[in-house]
Task: structure prediction
Amino acid sequence: MTDFTQYDGYKQDFDFHVGPARQDDFRSREFGDRLWADVSRILRTPFDGGTITPDSHEGYNYWFDNDDLSSSLYSGPREPGSGVLDQVPATLTVISRSEDVASSELAERIYAGLTASDDYLVVVFAHNGMPTAANFDIGDDW
Result:
């Protein structure tokens, strides 16, 4: 299991960049819906009452919050020429609001759950913009 606790602290969020393991025929909405449902399942938190709205760039914004956590997802179109980030066009952030559960614990659960299925490419960035974990080769140009 990947250890995210070393990056914990006040306002120390984790940004997940996620893409499909198979790169063919990508559709922002379908991918976002599937990822949103998988994150809800992994966290064992129904995202009932969450919002999904289109944006002006062919992407979709997803948002959910309750007393325990806040979750947002942007699933947008691929941006050719953006290197690794073209492979992972969705951005997910989940923040713990609970005093009993650190954001790093949520990040560990999400990373383990998403990478266990072999359906997703995942890169996690810490608050300073440095990658902390990836399940594929992202190179050293950070």
Summary: The longest strand covers residues 69-75.
